[in-house]
Structures are given as C-alpha cells and as structure tokens.
Specification:
692 residues, alpha/beta, Rossmann fold, nine-stranded mixed beta sheet, five-stranded antiparallel beta sheet, 21% strand, disordered C terminus
Length: 692
C-alpha cells in the first residue's frame, strides 16, 4: 500500500461521510415510498399536505419536528400509506435522543389521526349534502340495466353517476361510492369506507348475506328476498361481518358471499371473515365470476346460496336398516375416525406400544399385524414432542426386528412439538400434512402435555384441544391418538391426568401398566364408546435388539427394544380351585381394584378398600333389570350386595385375601401375597417418578 503521509503532511484520516440536510432526507424518503414529494418541506411539527401523484388533490401529507433529532411521519391518504421517519445524523443515537424520537413520531401520529378524523367528518357532511341532493336511480341507468338489477334505494348524482352511501350500522352516511355508466367505481375522496356498509331489505330477517359489490348484493336480494349487506370490497368483509355479528347476535345466520376473482383474494378474505365471526361461506364456481355474473349465465343462485341439506337428519327406517359396522384401524382396539388416548405412568412403555401400532398400520407388509388382528393400512403422522433421539432408535430397532424396509413404512414424524390448540400450531400441523399430498389414517400426539398450550386441568383448555383434534379428524377423516400421563395420586393411576373433560370426549381409552420386571406390559381398555371393551392383553418389551450400523462413542453396539406378543406371567395367576364363576369374578375384580387403586405407604402395598373392590365387582355384575322398575332395581341391588358378601367370605376362607382388623381394607393372602407385592412395588416407583 502506498504511503500517503508525505503527500498529505501527516497520517491519512478518512473524512466523515457527507450527511444531507434533514429536509433533503425527508424528500428522498417520500420519493422512495413511491410518492411524488413536494419541492420544499418544513420541519415545524405541523401537518402539511402535498400532491403525491398525477391527480390535483393533495392526499400526501407529512408531520416532522425539527428540534433535536428531526423525526415524524409521512404518508398518503389515498394509498393508505403511513411511515415513521427519522433523520440520519451519521452516528448512533443516545438514549435521550431515542426517547425524543419516539415522542416525535407518536405526536406526529396523533396529529395525523386528528387530521384524518377532521377530514372524515368533513367528507361525511359533504356526502350527506350530496346524497340529499341526488335523484332516485331507476333500473334504466346503464350500469343497472347491464347488470339486470333494480336500484334498491340508491341515487344518481348530477353527473349521472350512481351513488351508494357507505353507512355505519346506525345508518349515518360516512362516504359515497360512485359508479359511472361503464362500471368504474370510486369513493368520495377522503371518506371513511372501512367498516361501513349499505343495507338492502329488512335487516331483521334471517339469514343475512354479506356481498362485496352492489350488483351482487342486489342479485342475492332479488332472488332470495332476504337482507343483504354491501361491504364494497373484499378487504372490508372481515370488519363488516364483525359489525353485523355484533348487531345481530351470536345465533343469527350470516352468509358471506365471495367473488371468485383470479387473485383468490375474495375467497381468502371471505373465509377469514367466516372463521373469525362464525359465518357460512359461499362462492360461484367459475373463476372470474361474482354472483351477478353467475346469475346472468343462467346459474341457480338460490341453490348456490342455500344448497339442499341431506344426510344429517335420517329417518329411523334408513337409520336402522342400513348396515353401519364399526370401522377399525386395528380391529377391536383402535377405531377409525375416532379420538383415542393411551395413558400410563412415566417409563411404563406406552410410547413403545403406540409406536408399534403406528409402524404396523403404516407398514405395507400385511404379515405385520398386532396380535394377528385385521389392520387397516395407511399413512400415519406421528407428532413427537420429545425424545427424538430415542424415538429414532426405537424405529430403527422395529425395522430390524420385523425385517421391514424403511421404504415400506408410510410414517412421518415431526421434528418438534407445537401448541396444537392454538391457531398457529394447528395451521403448522395442517400445512405440513397438506404438503405431503395424501391424507393420514392416524395422527398421534405424543405427549399431550408437549402439544397443549394452557392447563391440562382446565376444562376450557381441554375443550379447545379436543376441538383442534376434531378439526384434524374432520379434515382428513382420520383417528387422532393422544399419549398422556396418569395422575400421581394412588387412585388416579388408572386414569389420564388432568380434567375429566378428556375422558368424556374420547372414543377409546387405554391404560398401559408395566410389571416389575420391566418387560411384561398389560394393556387395559378403560373405554370403548361404540363397541365392546376388549379383554386386557399382555405384550412384552423385547430388549437388546441390535440396530445395524449404530455404535456409541466407545464403539459399542447400540440396542433398543420393540413390542412383541406376550403372555400373562405365570406367577400372576393363582390357583383358583374350588371357586365357582361368581367367585372367580370376585377374585378377578379384587386384583383389578388392588393393582389399580391399591394404597401405598412407606414403600409398601397398604391394601385396597372394600368400597373400591365392591365397585369393581358391581361393574361385572350388572343388575339385569329395567332401571325404571324401582322395585326390581332394589331387589337386584340387594341380591348383588349379598353375592359380594358371600364371595368376600369365600375368598377369605380359602386364604386368597385377608381383611384388615377393621375390615375396611383387604390384602392378598397366602401364595398370592408375595406375587402381587411385585405389582405394587412397580406402582410405587412410578408414583415417585411422577411426584418428582
């Protein structure tokens, strides 16, 4: 590099960049925004107007304060532009200067808003005078004649243009839309159009339609005789629908009618209005048409607006005679198009169970079927909120054990969790599923806690999540399966943690319980809404499955586990000699009550209450009489009560069970005692894990 010291008589110092005066900077910023700037600007904190384009009216404006750091706002009322602006002074602003800049910009906004309000008020007065001076329109006006509609109270200006007043919900005119003979539309300059509408017909009737333009609204009113609201543009549909909803109430039927424009903006804004304010959506079938176009082509507008309803109310003749067997994903266990839940304590193996189901459903190999049951094949989406590294190993182990190629499994797994019960989270899930291009038969949410925004104990939050799941079911005609934890208290180990609203919404509910050997798992169906509850089954967690090509940092083989067919552990079934059928039911319900609701104290099983045992016994001993027959019910209840007492006495005598001193709690006795203690030790560990 050349030495410039001798040339410039000293070390070379880069000169500071040239900073234009703030007035020039403001003019340049206005031009960069696409507006034609004024030749001169004044930084005096007052609002100034200027011609921003080819038209003579001054719709451009700016408000800038020149003291300290020059700052303010500029924009254009016609183009709906409003931008903050701060002069560049060639250095970073101090804290005080930043705060002063904020105050200037906010003050400029206040002045601008105040000026807009004055302008709107002035235009509203002018619009009212112009409207009062207009003459009633007739169907002979060229625009109305071409559209084939009546005037419905609109007027004609002195220039021969149609005048449609844009009014508040109370009927106050805020501005006017002008339509000339060629159909060119223009609002009175400076008027307030957003949120304002024009009504056709009796506003109290129902349904009420909301359309973009006058011709469409007139067509709908003339065909149906119902009230119609002119929103004037698709961009006003959301706000107009909201105001109509506020005025008509929550139960009023509102139908938003969109133009089928090529840009798709009409449909987009109409659907947004419907989703936000609870309305119904309608649009003509052909791109480029509005309802008036559809009508003039001979379309059936009445049917388009109110298509015949079929299939919701069914006569008993059709209801009872048309076969409707329960559709299954896995017969008897996972119903199709249903909301399901699998729950259990932490570490009980529930994810292994659910993943095994998913792989089997998604697998193209018909030989891979859970418990040998008929299985519907299809795409599965697994929304995994945690443990992705472990999940990869489990999938790889399953493929290895069952000798299935990855290409033969139609399963997609999410990279992370999201709040499914929020609009953003729901849209994220739906968008990514839509991108696949096919519909899933099953969507798994593992775990519920990782995908729920809010409190799982809140019935309201639970309902929002259930509604989100119902939305996915409806959208794809699939089942949604939630993986959840059980409660931490002893009596909550049989049910899902959180609000009781979860259970009420489910079609299927299943518990997973792991034996102390951490290999034998029992699956117990707690609810099957539309079918018989299957008998509990045993599966086994086959450990030590080597994953090809997987080695840890020390070069040791990585292994995982898979679910395989299991058998009830031999030691868990005591000898049942000398027991009749009712007594065997008594022993079975004692074990269910003890293992599910048994008390834990100081690390040991502390008995199950006789009330809980009796309740489980009654579940398997129905009354068998008409509930309206009070006398019969009373007799049956007394008979069942005595049967339970006889069963209790028999099992005590045969030393299957033993009561506490007060007779309120029961314990496994004899050969059962040591065997069953293993179950309760496992439950205690699960309880302590949940508690931590």
């Amino acid at each position: 590099m050349a030495d410039l010291t001798n040339i410039f008589n000293g070390p070379w110092i880069t000169p500071p960049p040239r900073i234009d005066p703030p007035e020039e900077q403001l003019i340049e910023a206005i031009a960069d925004a696409g507006l034609e700037p004024p030749e001169q600007v004044f930084l005096d904190g007052k609002i100034h107007r200027f011609r921003s384009g080819q038209k003579k009216d001054k719709t451009g404006w700016y408000v800038v304060f020149g003291d300290g750091i020059p700052a303010g706002r500029f924009g254009d009322w016609r183009e709906d532009i409003s931008q903050p602006w701060t002069a560049d002074i060639g250095r970073q602003l101090t804290y005080d200067e930043v705060e002063a800049r904020k105050r200037h910009i906010e003050e400029a906004k206040r002045i601008r808003d105040q000026e807009i309000e004055k302008l709107h008020d002035a235009v509203a007065l002018a619009a009212q005078r112009i409207w009062d001076g207009g003459t009633p329109a007739t169907a002979e006006h060229p625009y109305l004649k071409r559209k084939g509609v009546q005037p419905h109270g609109i007027k004609v200006s002195g220039e021969g243009k149609l005048m449609i007043p844009a009014c508040t919900m109370d009927g106050d005119i805020k501005t006017i839309q002008y339509i000339d003979a060629d159909g060119k539309k223009q609002f009175h300059q400076g008027g307030e159009a957003g949120g304002n509408v024009y009504f056709l017909g009796d506003e109290s009737e129902s349904p009420i339609y909301i359309a973009e333009g006058f011709a469409t609204a007139a067509t709908i009113h003339e065909v149906t005789g119902k009230p119609v609201v002119v929103a004037f543009s698709c961009h006003n549909l959301v706000e107009a629908t909201g105001k109509v909803r506020d005025k008509r109430g929550a139960l009023s039927e509102i139908v938003v009618v969109a133009d089928n424009d090529e840009s798709g903006m009409g449909e987009k804004m109409a659907r947004r209005a419907c989703e936000k304010h609870g309305a119904r959506f309608v649009m003509p079938p052909d791109v480029g048409d509005d309802v008036n176009d559809y009508f003039q082509k001979g379309g059936d507008v009445r049917t388009l607006l109110a298509p015949p309803l079929e299939g919701w109310l069914i006569s008993v003749k059709d209801f009872a005679t048309v076969p409707a067997p329960i559709p299954w994903l896995i017969k008897g266990w996972i119903p199709a198009n249903a909301l399901c839940m699998v729950h259990g304590p932490s570490g009980c193996g529930k994810t292994f169970v659910v993943l095994n189901w998913c792989m089997g459903i998604a697998c193209s190999d018909s030989m891979v079927a859970w418990e040998g049951l008929p299985t519907k094949r299809g795409m599965v989406v697994y929304l995994a909120g945690e443990g992705h590294h472990g999940l990869r190993a489990r999938v790889a182990a399953w493929l290895k054990y069952y000798e299935v190629k990855p290409d033969d499994v139609d399963l997609f797994i999410s990279a992370s969790g999201c709040d499914l019960n929020t609009p953003e989270g729901y849209l994220k899930v739906k968008s990514h599923i839509d991108a696949i291009g096919r519909k899933p038969v099953l969507i798994v949410v593992d775990t519920l806690h990782r995908f729920l925004s809010g409190d799982e104990n809140s019935a309201q939050d639970a309902k929002i999540m259930v509604d989100a799941c119902a939305g996915l079911q409806y959208e794809y005609g699939c089942s949604v399966l939630l993986v959840h934890h059980t409660g931490v208290s002893d009596e909550a180990q049989h049910r899902a943690r959180g609000s009781s609203a979860w259970k009420g919404a489910l079609n299927m509910e299943l518990s997973v319980a792991m034996r102390p050997n951490k290999e034998d798992l029992q699956l117990i169906c707690r609810k099957m809404k539309d079918g018989a509850e299957p008998e509990p089954v045993w599966v086994r967690l086959q450990k030590g499955v080597e994953i090809p090509g997987w080695f840890d940092d020390d070069g040791e083989q990585v292994t995982s586990a898979v679910i395989v067919k299991g058998e009830e552990p031999m030691e868990s079934t005591p000898k049942e000699k000398n027991l009749n059928d009712v007594q065997r039911i008594g022993l079975k319900t004692f074990r269910i009550a003890a293992e599910t609701f048994g008390q834990l104290k100081d690390g040991r099983f502390d008995g199950v209450s006789v009330d809980i045992w009796r309740r489980e016994f009654y579940k398997l001993q129905p009354l068998g009489v008409d509930e309206n027959d009070k006398e019969g019910v009373n007799k049956a209840q007394e008979k069942r009560k005595k049967a339970f007492q006889r069963v209790q006495d028999k099992l005590i005598n045969l030393e299957y069970v033993k009561p506490s001193e007060d007779g309120k709690f029961f314990f496994p006795a004899g050969a059962m005692a040591e065997i069953d203690a293993m179950c309760f030790e496992s439950r205690l560990k699960s309880y302590e894990t949940e508690k931590l």
